[in-house]
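Pipeline run #58 for the internal structure catalog. This entry was flagged by the ingest filter as a single-chain record with no existing model, so it goes straight to prediction. Upstream metadata was stripped on purpose; only the residue string is passed forward. Reviewer on rotation: M.T. Logging verbosity set to normal.
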Amino acid sequence: MQRSEKKQEFLSVWLLLAGFCALALGVLLLCLTSIAELPDNVGRELTAEEMTAVIARNSPLTEYAYLSPNANFPREAPIRKITIHHMAEDLDPVRLAHAFGNVDRKASANYGIGTDGKVVLYVEECNRAWTSSSPENDHQAVTIEVANDEVGGDWHVSDTAYNKLLELCTDICRRNGIERLSYTGDAVGNLTIHKMFNENTQCPGPYLESRMEDIAAAVNERLAEYEQIG
């Protein structure tokens, strides 16, 4: 090989290495920028003062908040929908909060409800949680994870959790100007479920799916009563 050819090959290798280095640097800078843009109250325990302020901006039914970094800050559309999920186990919603607090999890929800009815906030309503396999849906929806008191089968949820779900849905609708919930069995309605956006899941399970029309009717009745009182 002639000297000029060796020199050209040497330069080509170095240009290729330089390109890889530049790409790696770009990815690193992007990651650092993303981390820097995260709110300073995510992924850690909140002080009592911070907890009070966060709950005041969201549902007053919230008993605990641990905010996930796995979200878009802020959401890109007004809240028009509610999307219901199940946890697929009888999981303490506080424990789930810390799982969602892990950036490697790459998942979250706005709220979780335990079998005992405890409501935990994971992503503030003004932000989009990563829940439903559909950014378009999640930018418009408040997403709720409900614990199961039966693992497998119909994936039943406790009456306490179910009743708290009705309360939470009603509260979300009231504060966000959703006049009525409509479950249509597809993504057109403003009450949706996870499986509408992901063919590989049965979430939220047969029990909650069978109650969707009941949930919409119960919430609408409560909203109508609220309007009469108001």
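catalog note: Residues 18-36 have pLDDT under 50 and may be disordered.
catalog note: The first helix runs from residue 3 to 37.
status: ready for reviewer M.T.
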